Amino acid sequence: MTRVFSGVKPTGHLTLGNYLGAMRRWVEVDQHQADALFCIVDLHALTVEHDPARVRRLSRQAATLLLAAGLDPRLCTVFVQSHVDEHARLSYLLECVATDGEMRRMIQYKEKAAREQARGGSVRLSLLTYPVLMAADILAYGTDEVPVGDDQTQHVELTRDLAVRFNQRYGHTFVVPRATHPGVAARVMNLQEPTSKMGKSDDTGPGIVYLLDEPDAVRRKVMRAVTDSGRDVVYDRQGRPGLANLLEILAACTGGNPSDLSGVYESYGALKKDTAEAVVELLRPVQQRHKELCADPGYVEGVLRDGAERARAMARPTVDAAYRAIGL
Ligand code: ADP
User: Fold this and answer.
1) What sign for the dihedral angle of Cα 292, 295, 299, 305?
2) Other CB atoms within 10 Å distance of the CB of residue 11
3) What are phi and psi of 326, to 5 degrees?
4) Beta bridge partners of 40
5) Residues 79-121: pLDDT tens digits?
6) In terms of C-beta density within 10 A (0-12 exposed, 13-18 middle, 19 or more buried), how is residue 240 classed?
């Protein structure tokens, strides 16, 4: 059976980008068709300025939302990264295979390091080595497929490179994984700055739809989305990014195709209105289930405890094999 691994960082509240770019596929496809693990990657949240109590709260919230979105612990494994020591154990070995130059070429590192410096903070070493820990997350489970949004392509490529290099140097140990992306909305853009992705850690409220936003907040954000001064509704990602983003969101919510949808609308207002309602309807059942799960925190804790146990049992043999392959 295909092994699937993916994760979310508890660096902020989960967004529509996380849902359309990754989570929906986990729920609708991966947990049914594969042996799938979904991880709240809390160690990654420590790579930038953070409040520890908030990271803990957001981890529980992310787990609750994954279950609310439809992940079923009878079908897949949901757990928290820091509960399983194997990730950090393997990360060190992979750091000995990765190079400094490779790390510095990562686009997300450059962007995030610049952001930390602009805030007057210093750049943590872990921000540089973060993609190696991500590679360990993936390789520890013998992962075949990594369902992620477009923004993670470079990191999964690096993971493949490290797996191949390790295997060549020390003997075959790791499965070489590949990324899978959704056909539509693989990169949902910020509604206020449609040339940057909708990222949960940006905390730039008005351009980000959070999964727990009230219907009126969703409507307000979508109706105020930045478009352009044209009048005709056409699907052009390069030339008309704001409009293309709305068409993609609507298409992803309704199962349509952005190009076909552009022919249906004669005004931006009508498109925005339908997009807002489609998002509200998409989020309604998730929010309802989230509310129910919040009333039963013991259930979520139990799922995470079992998940960590299962994950540990899966990761340990691979990580042990990696140490043995080196002769340690
Ligand atoms: P974030 O950038 O919100 O902190 P994470 O690193 O936690 O996201 O990513 C969780 C998953 O959501 C990843 O698979 C990532 O590719 C996907 N994802 C995040 N933002 C977007 C987006 N704007 N559009 C599509 N997918 C996204």
Assistant:
1) positive
2) 22
3) -80, -15
4) 8, 80
5) 999 999 999 999 999 999 999 999 999 999 999 999 889 988 8
6) buried
Task: Answer for the pair 207, 197: CB distance below 8 angstroms, yes or no.
Answer: no
Parallel/antiparallel/unpaired status of strands 145-147 and 178-180 = parallel
200-291 CATH pick, 3.40.50.200, 1.10.1660.10, 1.10.240.10, 3.40.50.150: 1.10.240.10
Classify domain 3-181+297-326 at the CATH superfamily level: HUPs (3.40.50.620)
Catalytically annotated residue among 112, 272, 273, 291: 112
Binding residues: 9-11, 17-18, 137, 149-151, 188, 197-201
Token pair belonging to 80: 């928290």
Whether the CB of 59 sits within 6 Å of ligand 1: no
pTM, full prediction: 0.95
277 lines ligand 1 (CB under 6 A): no
Contact 46, 129 (CB under 8 A): no
The interface pTM score, or ipTM, of the predicted complex is 0.97
